[in-house]
Amino acid sequence: MSALARNVYSEEMPFRDPHTAAPCLWAVRGRDGPAFEVSTATPSFATHDQDRKGLEEALIAIACREMGKSPTANFGRIITGYSQSGYRSDGYVGDPLEEGETEPNTEPGRGPVPWKNVDDVTASDWMGLECAKPEEKPTERYNMI
């Protein structure tokens, strides 16, 4: 959290790593002012990265459902009027756009899924989505010499 906060308040737009939301939050700060309200928690069952990330994704899905849209700074998006920084290895630093310029990552994102059939995670219509069946790979036998 401290790396995210430090990068959001830097002079130039931060890279997308270590936190992919930092460039968008930097732009929001430039547009709306420096005040942010943030809450954090690390439940005892989510101390490992995989568990924590799973919990984060679930909370983002719930927020998306309740707001009726994707959160502003998630999924690599940027607010209108700004170009998105790349990853540090790319070296591209975003900034406010010139008049008439556009950035494709300003699309509003997907609305919430309908939350149908939530219990059967392997169903082809889980969460109201159309899911393809996994491809079956042929089984091959190799003779080792």
Care to give the gist of this entry?
26% of the residues lie in helices and 0% in strands. The chain is mostly helical and 145 residues long.
Describe the protein's architecture and organization.
It is globular, with a radius of gyration of 20 Å. The protein is built from three helices and no strands. By secondary structure, the protein is an all-alpha fold. Helix 1 crosses helix 2 (22-32). It has one domain (2-128). Residues 88-119 are annotated as: Disordered.
Strand content: under 5%
Number of helices: 3
State the helicity in percent bands.
25-40%
Describe the sheet with the most strands. Answer: none
SSE string, helices as H and strands as E: HHH
Terminal-residue CA separation = 54 Å
The beta-strand count equals 0
Q: Which structural category fits the helices and strands?
A: mainly alpha
> Which value, in Å, is the CA radius of gyration?
20 Å
Shape, per Cα inertia axes: globular
Which stretches are low in confidence, meaning pLDDT under 50 for 5 or more residues running?
none
Mean pLDDT: 84
The structural domain count equals 1
Region (Disordered): 88-119
Question: Which short descriptors sum up this protein?
Answer:
mainly alpha, 3 helices
List the helices and strands and how they pair.
Blueprint: H1 2-8, H2 22-32, H3 49-67
